[in-house]
Design a protein that fits this description.
about 100 residues; mainly alpha; about 0% strand; elongated
Length: about 100
């Protein structure tokens, strides 16, 4: 009887990260459509290309130093996805460098 060997825990974790990334990309697109927020051409292209790379290769980045092992998105791709999701929710974009502007008189 030929039995398939059990999947390794690493493989299961990688597949879970892949599913989570694809769900987050779909959720961001859906919430933008639902809220009537128009994504820029770049943002739409980003969501499409990243989801296609995750489906094809299991992750969306080639350089292993740009993301954690077992993750589907690099750190910058994750940040951009959060920014797009926040835009879809109607939130103000956060300042990247941590400095706040002085109040205007």
């Amino acid at each position: 009887m030929n039995r398939k060997p059990p999947p390794s825990p690493f493989e299961a974790q990688r597949k879970a990260a892949q599913r989570a990334a694809l769900n987050a990309l779909r959720r961001a697109r859906r919430s933008a459509d639902k809220a009537g927020v128009s994504l820029s051409g770049w943002e739409g292209e980003f969501l499409d290309s990243v989801s296609e790379r995750v489906k094809t290769h299991g992750r969306a980045f080639g350089d292993p130093e740009k993301g954690a092992p077992g993750q589907a998105l690099s750190s910058m791709q994750g940040r951009k996805l959060k920014e797009i999701a926040a835009k879809a929710r109607g939130e103000e974009p956060k300042r990247r460098w941590g400095k706040t502007l002085p109040p205007k008189d």
